[in-house]
């Protein structure tokens, strides 16, 4: 296990529109962790301030699908820019990809068409193909990962990592929940190509429809490509989907 220095985590408040304010807030900060929602302008302002104030590591606001493998345009594309900009300035930037937050999708959530208490799941599946697996990650595991990455020397860090607390097909989710409640959970499927056509031709490119699209394409399965062991280094147990659904 690498030696972990003691670090102090601070939540900082600043006016993003006033560069002086942001610089003042970031004085003496080594690692800048961007936890903002989808605000690309603020991401750029924060990245520039991290550069001006001499931060050595920037963790951009990713925490979602690994859009590097998408062969179509998506709203997540905007996230790529923030890392490129900070890297161009010479700051190490580590993108953390995690699939879907468990807390936002299970047992019910708008991200993936899952409504387990309503006993319905809609899965986007390729025609004639097997059900794609989808990685879910608990917010706690994301937070632990951020802390683990932030503790390490920037020079030993990769540019991007994938993590996954648990990975199941949506059908498996429905079947598991069915066994918990003793009542049928209906799993309906949508053809991937038709769904892709409707999403990509829509005037409104919502992140949730893009989570479903990526899931249907099999691009949210990080079960074999994740860096879980390296990141946790035996320091914590990853939360399982069963633990989340049963509240253990
Ligand atoms: N994988 C998943 O399933 C999943 C789900 C949700 C989110 N995410 C990702 O997680 C990250 C955080 O998302 P979130 O849902 O926590 O975001 P959020 O709730 O939309 O925003 C987080 C914070 O950003 C600040 N903020 C609001 N407007 C701002 C602006 N114009 N400029 C600067 N800051 C502003 C606010 O902080 P104050 O309250 O301090 O003003 C807000 O609490 C994002 O990258 C998002 O894509 C992933």
From TrEMBL:
InterPro entries per UniProt: NAD(P)-bd_dom_sf, NmrA-like, NmrA/Isoflavone_reductase-like
Keyword Cell cycle: no
Keywords assigned by UniProt, alphabetized: NADP, Oxidoreductase
Domain NmrA-like: 21-188
Keyword Oxidoreductase: yes
Any coiled-coil regions, as ranges: none
A GO term, aspect molecular function: oxidoreductase activity
Pfam family, one: NmrA
PANTHER family tied to this protein: NMRA-LIKE DOMAIN-CONTAINING PROTEIN-RELATED, NMRA-LIKE FAMILY PROTEIN
Name of protein: NmrA-like domain-containing protein
């Amino acid at each position: 296990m690498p030696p972990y220095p003691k670090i102090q985590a601070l939540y900082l408040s600043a006016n993003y529109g006033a560069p002086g304010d942001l610089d003042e807030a970031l004085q003496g900060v080594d690692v800048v962790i961007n936890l903002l929602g989808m605000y690309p302008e603020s991401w750029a302002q924060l990245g520039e301030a991290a550069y001006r104030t001499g931060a050595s590591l920037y963790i951009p606001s990713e925490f979602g699908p690994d859009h590097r493998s998408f062969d179509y345009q998506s709203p997540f594309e905007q996230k790529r820019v923030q890392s490129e900009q900070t890297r161009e300035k010479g700051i190490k930037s580590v993108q953390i990809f995690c699939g879907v937050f468990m807390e936002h999708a299970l047992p019910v959530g708008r991200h993936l068409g899952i409504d387990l208490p309503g006993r319905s799941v809609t899965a986007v599946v390729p025609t004639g193909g097997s059900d794609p697996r989808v990685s879910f990650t608990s917010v706690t595991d994301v937070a632990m990962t951020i802390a683990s990455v932030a503790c390490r020397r920037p020079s030993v860090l990769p540019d991007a990592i994938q993590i996954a607390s648990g990975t199941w097909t949506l059908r498996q989710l429905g079947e598991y929940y069915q066994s918990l409640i003793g009542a049928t959970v209906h799993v309906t499927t949508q053809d991937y190509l038709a769904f892709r056509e409707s999403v990509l031709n829509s005037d409104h490119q919502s992140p949730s429809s893009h989570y479903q699209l990526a899931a249907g394409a099999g691009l949210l399965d990080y079960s074999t490509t994740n860096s879980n062991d390296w990141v946790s280094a035996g320091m914590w147990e990853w939360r399982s989907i069963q633990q989340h659904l049963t509240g253990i």
